[in-house]
Design brief:
Chain lengths: 341, 433
């Protein structure tokens, strides 16, 4: 679920060996590594959330199967890198997944559109279910051996004896490059202009004579291809397994709700926020018993002991959901959201 | 003024209609009583119990989706919490020898569901539509993940178990044998179904429909849609809790799977496949999906794939579900023009079945090569044996799939013409579709 678990926990694993170093160095190391990992996870989330947001704004349907395209990207990438190597896979797998996505829009969603938004959302829900089953049938339930390419399999730099892998830097660079490219396309090109217009006034764009159907198909294809890019680059670093969509999907939807449905800047802020929150949470070992001392023996056997003894690292998986509930209580629109539904 | 009320309010039902209404409930009760006399095996008792639980759960889900227009991806939270509280209270009652019999336990589950729906519902129902769907998903994940962290209460991955026979005996019933559990489930199912039907006829039930159709106008009339959604959510939580408690009693265990996304997805499947537009839809869906999941898993290895494909097919081609499809034909039956439609159905059925057979054949062949490539290629799926290694089988699968698809597309346009023909004839006779 998190990209940060191994290296995020590393400082604690080697705690005993490094007693000779000062606490300040350890905190600094933790801060640097966790920030890097957090930004990386956040950028990966944004690669997916951006496509999801644009698709939602234009088609009015939240693509429940978006995380499934991320998974398809990872598995296509795995298969293609087996046949032709990693670099062709980085290019071909997103194109393939994007083509699948465009096909889904053209032959599935467009037909369901007349049955209403609930039917569209449920169609993508069923699709997510089917994609997971198909992936299980083809690649099995256990994780596949998707390796980091040898070219990038070395430590990029060392901070206070912790090696930071070059592949993670590569992931960060790719996601930032795509982010900048997306920004340029959206802000500087004519297609970007139409997409931007369609975000807020989809009907007007249709009235102006653009082929809205083709734009929809294109946007859906590009959005799912972006998710697949995230899948290909995340596959070797994380676990490539048939449940990866089910694990990441809910967090992705939390990102869009926290950022505000249909808001691209909101999705960006929320992605980074959730990436950082989760990464910092897994590297913290504090608990209530650590802060206030052990629980009195009278309550030892009750369920209070669970809450008392749980560490922040253990509740990291539920942090995004807690954040979402808090945001909804204080700002139901989401951080930067404007639209009501 | 009184004239306006008289023209707006529906006329009071005639005595005969009332009689028919109560007779149908009575008939349902008699059928539930007689079922164990017809199907006597223990296996069918288990199946019927599962169906009863699924009916309550699906109907409670339809209070949200069908009546109030809220698509929830986290309804299993209230089902699961009801189940857990039922198990814990059974253990406490047995340990302290309290004078509480087993049939009351589902009420505890229901109140738990109500309590948590009341707690979590206010935040969840602030917004409707897609935002609500995502929020329900997030809240569902929050509770399901918390269940794995709070191990003492939720029992970790193993769950918490209880012994249902240790409670106070009622009329000499120990509730050990499955048949007694069946009667318990059947009684609660009948009570819950009647209660949920009654709910749809109350002013609140009508306001729920109004909130589903046009929340803005509900505000104009002076109601707060948020409050209406919240109340519907609480009722749905209550009945889901009853279903969860019954499931816990039936299995004598509650584990974190009760709360999870799979459970939420299953109830959504059942409700939608049955049809959300009619009260009876989720009942049909619960029966259909329970039989499907029990039956398909015997017939094929990848039954979940077929399950998903059936769901997609229903969403795409029959958004009204099974009951929606059947009810579409009601004006035609009344007008007597259904006969014009039947021949085209029969013609369309043949290539459609051929296409499905081709699809199944291809899927099973692919499954043979990817999942268990080392096995004997003579495989059986859906009770039919064939050789997955034979090129003839591959050719047959491709022929059935492609040929069936092309032919089916042609024949279904004929069905469309026949449909238009039959409905316009029915409309001429005064039966509006």
């Amino acid at each position: 679920m998190t990209s940060s678990r191994p290296s995020g926990l590393a400082p604690q694993a080697g705690w005993g060996k490094r007693l000779n170093r000062t606490l300040g160095q350890l905190v600094l190391e933790l801060l640097v590594i966790s920030t890097l990992n957090g930004v990386l996870f956040g950028m990966l989330l944004f690669l997916m959330a951006s496509g999801l947001t644009v698709i939602f704004s234009m088609l009015g349907v939240l693509n429940f199967a978006h995380a499934s395209f991320y998974m398809l990207g990872a598995f296509f990438g795995f298969q293609i890198s087996r046949w032709f190597g990693f670099w062709p896979a980085l290019l071909i797998a997103p194109l393939l997944a994007g083509a699948v996505g465009a096909g889904v829009e053209r032959y599935g969603l467009r037909r369901v559109h007349k049955n209403g938004h609930v039917a569209e959302l449920l169609f993508t829900f069923g699709l997510a279910f089917v994609i997971e089953e198909v992936v299980q049938i083809i690649w099995g339930k256990s994780p596949v051996d998707f390796r980091v390419p040898p070219l990038l399999d070395f430590p990029a730099f060392t901070i206070f004896s912790t090696n930071y892998p070059a592949y993670k830097m590569f992931m960060l660079l790719v996601s930032i490059a795509i982010f900048v490219g997306l920004l340029l396309v959206l802000k500087k090109t004519r297609i970007g202009l139409i997409v931007q217009a369609a975000l807020t006034h989809p009907h007007m764009v249709g009235h102006l004579g653009h082929n809205v159907g083709r734009i929809f198909m294109l946007v859906f294809g590009v959005g799912t291809a972006l998710a697949a890019v995230a899948g290909v680059i995340a596959g070797p670093a994380l676990v490539t397994q048939s449940n990866m969509a089910g694990l990441l999907g809910p967090i992705l939807f939390v990102v869009v709700v926290v950022g505000g449905l249909g808001s691209l800047p909101g999705a960006f802020v929320a992605s980074l926020l959730i990436g950082l929150v989760q990464t910092f949470a897994v590297s913290m070992n504090g608990s209530l018993s650590g802060a206030f001392g052990p629980l009195s023996p009278a309550y030892e056997a009750t369920w209070l002991a669970d809450i008392w003894g749980v560490t922040i690292a253990q509740i990291a998986p539920i942090m995004p959901y807690l954040l979402m509930v808090l945001i909804l209580i204080f700002r139901p629109m989401g951080l930067l959201g404007t639209r009501d539904t | 003024m009184s004239e306006i009320t008289a023209s707006v309010a529906p006329p009071l039902p005639a005595a005969a209609e009332k009689l028919r209404f109560y007779a149908s409930w009575l008939a349902a009760a008699i059928v539930l009583l007689l079922l164990p006399k017809i199907f006597t095996s223990g296996g069918s008792m288990t199946t019927f119990s599962l169906i009863g639980i699924s009916i309550i759960f699906s109907l409670s889900y339809n209070i949200l989706l069908g009546q109030t227009g809220m698509l929830s991806f986290g309804h299993a939270v209230y089902y699961g919490l009801g189940g857990f509280l039922a198990i814990h209270s059974m253990n406490i009652i047995a340990a302290d020898k309290l004078a509480i019999p087993l049939p009351v336990i589902p009420l505890i589950g229901g109140l738990t569901g109500l309590l948590f729906a009341a707690l979590l519902g206010w935040v969840s129902t602030q917004r409707s539509g897609t935002a609500f769907a995502m929020i329900s998903l997030g809240v569902g994940e929050l509770i399901a993940s918390s269940a794995l962290i709070l191990r003492t209460f939720f029992g970790g991955e193993a769950g918490v178990s209880a012994n249902r026979t240790k409670l106070l005996k009622l009329f000499g019933w120990s509730f050990g044998p499955q048949i007694q559990i069946y009667y318990l489930v059947a009684a609660w199912t009948l009570i819950a179904v009647v209660a949920m039907y009654a709910l749809t006829r109350t002013p609140l039930g009508r306001m729920c429909n109004a909130v589903r159709d046009n929340p803005e106008r509900v505000q104009f009339v002076g109601y707060n849609p948020h409050v209406v959604r919240y109340l519907a959510f609480c009722f749905a939580g209550f009945f889901a809790g009853i279903a969860g408690a019954l499931a816990a009693i039936n299995f004598e265990i509650a584990n974190s799977a009760y709360l999870g996304a799979v459970q939420s997805g299953t109830v959504l499947f059942a409700t939608y496949i049955g049809g959300i537009g009619f009260f009876i839809g989720p009942i049909v869906g619960a029966i259909f999906v329970t039989f499907l999941s029990l039956g398909l898993s015997d017939l094929t290895q990848v039954w979940q794939l077929y399950f998903g494909l059936i769901f997609i097919a229903v969403v795409t081609f029959a958004p009204g579900g099974i009951t929606g499809l059947l009810m579409m034909h009601r004006p035609l039956v009344k007008a007597g023009t259904l006969a014009r439609l039947l021949p085209s159905y029969l013609i369309a059925l043949l290539p459609t079945l051929a296409m499905i057979a081709g699809l199944v054949l291809s899927i099973e062949t692919i499954v043979h090569y990817t999942v268990n490539p080392g096995d004997d290629p003579h495989i059986r799926a859906f009770g039919v044996g064939f050789d997955a290694a034979s090129p003839y089988v591959w050719a047959l699968a491709a022929l059935l799939l492609i040929g069936g698809f092309l032919a089916a597309r042609r024949t279904w346009t004929w069905v469309g013409h026949a449909w238009d023909d039959a409905t316009s004839a029915a409309r001429d006779k005064g039966f509006a579709a």
